[in-house]
Amino acid sequence: MNLNSANDAFVAKLRSHISEAAIRTVEPRYLEEPRGKWQGQAGVVVAPANTEEVAAAIRAAGDARVGVIPYGGGTGLVGAQIMPEGPAPMILSLERMNTIRGVYPEENVIVAEAGVILQEIHEAAGAAGRLFPLSIAAKGSARIGGNLSTNAGGVNVLRYGNARDLCLGIDAVLPDGSIMHGLTRLRKDNTGYDLRNLLIGAEGTLGVITAAALKLAPRPQETGTALLVVNGPAAALDLLSLARDQVGEAVSSFELIDGQGFDFLADTLPDIRRPFDPAPPWMVLVELGLSGGAGAQAALERLFGAGLETGLLSDGVLAHSGAQRDALWEIREQIPEANRRVGSVSSHDVSLPLSEIDGFIAAARAALAQLGDFRINCFGHLGDGNLHYNVFPARGRTRADYPGMGPRVQERVHEMVVARGGSFSAEHGVGRLKTGDLERWGDPARLAAMRAIKAALDPLGIMNPGAVLTAGG
Amino acid sequence: MNLNSANDAFVAKLRSHISEAAIRTVEPRYLEEPRGKWQGQAGVVVAPANTEEVAAAIRAAGDARVGVIPYGGGTGLVGAQIMPEGPAPMILSLERMNTIRGVYPEENVIVAEAGVILQEIHEAAGAAGRLFPLSIAAKGSARIGGNLSTNAGGVNVLRYGNARDLCLGIDAVLPDGSIMHGLTRLRKDNTGYDLRNLLIGAEGTLGVITAAALKLAPRPQETGTALLVVNGPAAALDLLSLARDQVGEAVSSFELIDGQGFDFLADTLPDIRRPFDPAPPWMVLVELGLSGGAGAQAALERLFGAGLETGLLSDGVLAHSGAQRDALWEIREQIPEANRRVGSVSSHDVSLPLSEIDGFIAAARAALAQLGDFRINCFGHLGDGNLHYNVFPARGRTRADYPGMGPRVQERVHEMVVARGGSFSAEHGVGRLKTGDLERWGDPARLAAMRAIKAALDPLGIMNPGAVLTAGG
Fold first, then answer.
1. For the complex shown, is ipTM > 0.90?
2. Where in this chain does the record put each FAD-binding PCMH-type domain (chains A, B) (predicted)?
């Protein structure tokens, strides 16, 4: 199944199927991605105004056997939105499909087109007195279609689930250009195969999501936020159990913070206020969101007291204002930027069964010490078992001092994760970065079924070729 | 793709692939279903001891082109577990795979084989101080594999989601006999297509789930239950909003009860105590489950007071003991049995966007009055938008007095549901009962994709032939 380039002849044909306004200049922003690992290429960028135009563009690409790269906010971290080689594709940007079609506060539902920016969905939900809980660092530029296509995670998964859990229905264009209408606002609908969840997380390889009906949640009436110094990852998990015993589902976030992350902030972003100095080895950022009259501050103080008493924690700061809350979140949210400035040897987005986390962290540190002298910043969504396990040069050295080491570190980390029943991609997806990992670690029967589904729905192989599944596989 | 009967020659071959203990007598219980709509048939029943034997049996069936009917507890209401015609199939019962493989309270996870009865999972979770929230009337005989294959719903979906939302990972045997290993205990795993959710709800047509890792929840420390007399379905939904404003996710159940259901109980099961006489037109059964110290009784009383004040409700009883709570639930749970004794003209399991419910109930009553003289019992999981909309003969008449009327009533109801953006099968599935509805009301692109996936994964068409998708389609 050889594809063709989206050349001038193709663009000329495209013009007969979609409006002129949908044909865009191939600006550099479409060809870059946040980590600078790849340089993309494209023969044309199209930005359809509606689902029918998406369908027309995909049908044209199918007729011409041109690859299609669906493009949301461009914030993905595994290269699903970038075609670095092969015949130049058509980039299909959802940026013009940016209408919020309806907010139904009494149903706790919002219906948005795929190109709406995540932050705008937050704002529309908030204006209706509701919460759209999906929240990631890139919320100001990520678009909801991309969030769904990659099944985005973030800081509220613990309580509200990931993008998949927040989606009730989708409209999508399938690889043959047919439109699948499924923008239902239903909580229950058992009428056949779950194609919604098949497209969610398929990273654009099985079709393009063009609109979604999303779940909203009641806004917690009181929020309590604290940064607590814990006696290690195991103590942190025990503290999470304690918190859930005390307040049930009200634990909205439970983020592990590594003392190494504090040190990186001190080195690269010194203006960010760090409440503890020197940095304790391990902290957690806890947020509770409670309903009316339940007393979030009191609940946090009770948790703090119980944590002190049981020896799970030794210190902490509680936010007493919105500004203090923002300051605590600023620490968490700037750690990825600090990491970027330090420059990792290898970064990992892994998940583990909760009871394997403590053992993994100890064993991985020991195993990597045998490979070289590293600093490790292990942080993230502890309550979900999701660690951003990032490995950095020793102080005073740079990644250039570790030639060829990145892949070795990565292999070792992924090997240890998989051996403990974990995943080598918890929330970022496979994209083009981890196709080799999927081949290596994926269950063979599952991979064969994935390939059979890909071939059945996209026999020409035009949708996001090379992402998730390798072409040759 | 003509299939063959599971005849003596096939059974003889089967014996060379699986242990003798797995070959069962074709007892009548395998050939009956709860509503007595169909009489099943089978050439052989196999009950494998483990996943490898399931795989061997399916490979043998594939070699001989014999149909396979996966069989859990036999409690399904749409005939997915029954083959009434065509070549006699192999019934594949999971009854011997009934081991709970592990309980991980610190992870809030339980791992169970597909044949474990739902009630046993409740008990194992309870023994570990946890809750497995999936709860349906048939919990004493339904098996978890069937619950997952049909994406079962029930009375706690409002808070905890349906079977799909409670499943972290599955092992399954695919139609080619390959074993897909995916029994992960992970909360996040973005490594390729979501085959778990594809198999969940596929009603055994794409493979057989053999084991599952399931989410547990903290047990609410206080439960409050009340039966409230509401001023109609719209008032009931407003009361639900009020309850959520007051206690957030703690609303575990919110069941609509129709005065007609009370009258049916009085007629057919008079020993069940009904707190209001005569029956009010509409009631809701509300249950709150709260964490430590939050005061469930007080919360219910506050809700009751606010409901009275705003005119949403006019009366109610609060349970003050476990026995009183059970008595309220007994009313709800015996309504289906009362319905069965009265004998419906047509029963429906529909869902609607919440804001369409009130209008639908009024419009459907008016539309059916034009078809004939009926009694309507409209009850169920209101918070999920899921109504069991059941239509009965007028008092003193029986369904025999309504010849040919069942399909007409059903068509009218489903037509009105679909026109309002609803579903003709909210939680029971498609099975063999609703394949015609799926053809008629299903989105064409979605149906085409379903057929393509079925053909890709089960090219011989051996898995549950005739369920969900019609063979000719």
1. yes
2. 38-219
